[in-house]
Amino acid sequence: MSYKIYKNSISEKNSKKIFDFVLKSCQFYCPFVFDQKENYKKTWVDKKFVKKMFYFRKNYKERFSAMYDSIKTSNQFQKIIFSCKLDLIAKKFLKTECDNLLIRDIQLRMDFPNDKRNSYGWHQDNAYDEYNLYSKNGAVLWIPLIKTNKKNGTLVVKTGSENSSFKCSKKVKKGTKYTSEQILVKKKYLKKYKSKSINCSKNAALATYCGIFHKSGNNTSDHIRFTIVVRYNNQFSEDFKFYRDLRS
C-alpha cells in the first residue's frame, strides 16, 4: 500500500477557521487590497478572494512572502491543526502509538496556476530531514482544502517507491535567474516505478510514507490549490536520526 485516503480529516468548520485566519493575515499585511468588511461566502474558491490573492502576490511580493511565512508558525493555525487530532491518522497509517510520534512541521501551501518557480521535481521528504532512514517510519499527511485533480495539480506518486530510503536522492541546483537547491530522486530510481495522480476530495487526508517518490502536478486551473501538509516521524525506532547517530 503506497498511500491511503482518510475522508473528512478536517471538518468544514475547521477549514473555515483556517480561512478566516488566512484572511486576517492578508488584511494585516495588505489592507489596501483586502477590505475588512468584504465577505467571501465560498471561502477558498470564492472568485473575489482568489482574484485578490492573485493581485496581492503579483504586486506585493515581499508582503505576500511575509504573510505566507507568518502563518506557518502562528499559534492560531497550529492550534486548529492540533484540534483536528491528525496524529490519530498518522498512528493508524504507521501502525504505531501516538506517543512515538514527533511532528517535523506543519505547512499551509498556496499553489498558484503555472507556478514553475516554486515547484519541486520528484523528491522524498525524508531526504531533507533524514529523520527516519526507512520510509515506513514516517508519514506525510497531504490535506487539500479544495477538491484536487490533474487540472489543479493534485499529488503524483511513484507507487512502490515507499520501500526506498533517502539514499535514492541527491542535491541539485535549480533555476538560472533565481538559483535554489533541491534534493531530488536520482533518475535511475525513477525508472523503476509507475506514476499515479491521486484525485482527492476536500478536507481528506492523503497519507503517504516519508520516503515515497512524489511531486505536485502542474496547476493549470484558474484557481489556487490550498493544501495543508503535516509530517510525522517515529522517534522511537532504531533508524531515527538522533538514535541512529549514537551508533555511528
From the structure above, extract its key features.
single chain; 248 residues; alpha+beta; 5-stranded antiparallel sheet; 3-stranded antiparallel sheet; 29% helix
Structure description:
This protein is an alpha+beta fold. The protein contains eight helices and ten strands. The protein has helices at residues 12-29, 47-59, 61-72, 75-83, 87-94, 126-129, 187-190, 241-244, and strands at residues 3-6, 101-111, 138-144, 155-158, 169-174, 180-185, 195-197, 205-209, 214-216, 225-234. The strands form three sheets. It has a five-stranded antiparallel β-sheet. It has a three-stranded antiparallel β-sheet with strand order 7-4-9, with no helix packed on it. A hairpin with a 5-residue loop joins strand 5 and strand 6 (180-185). Helix 1 (12-29) packs across helix 3 (61-72) and helix 1 (12-29) packs antiparallel against helix 4 (75-83).
Q: Order of SSEs, N→C?
A: EHHHHHEHEEEEHEEEEH
Number of strands: 10
Order of strands, widest sheet = 1-8-3-10-2
Sheet with most strands: 5 strands, antiparallel
Distance between the termini: 32 Å
Give me the secondary-structure category: alpha+beta
The portion of residues forming beta strands comes to: 15-25%
Q: What level of helicity do the residues show?
A: 25-40%
Rounded to the nearest angstrom, the radius of gyration is 18 Å
* Helical stretch tally: 8
Low-confidence stretches: none
Shape designation:
globular
Q: What would the average pLDDT be, to the nearest integer?
A: 95
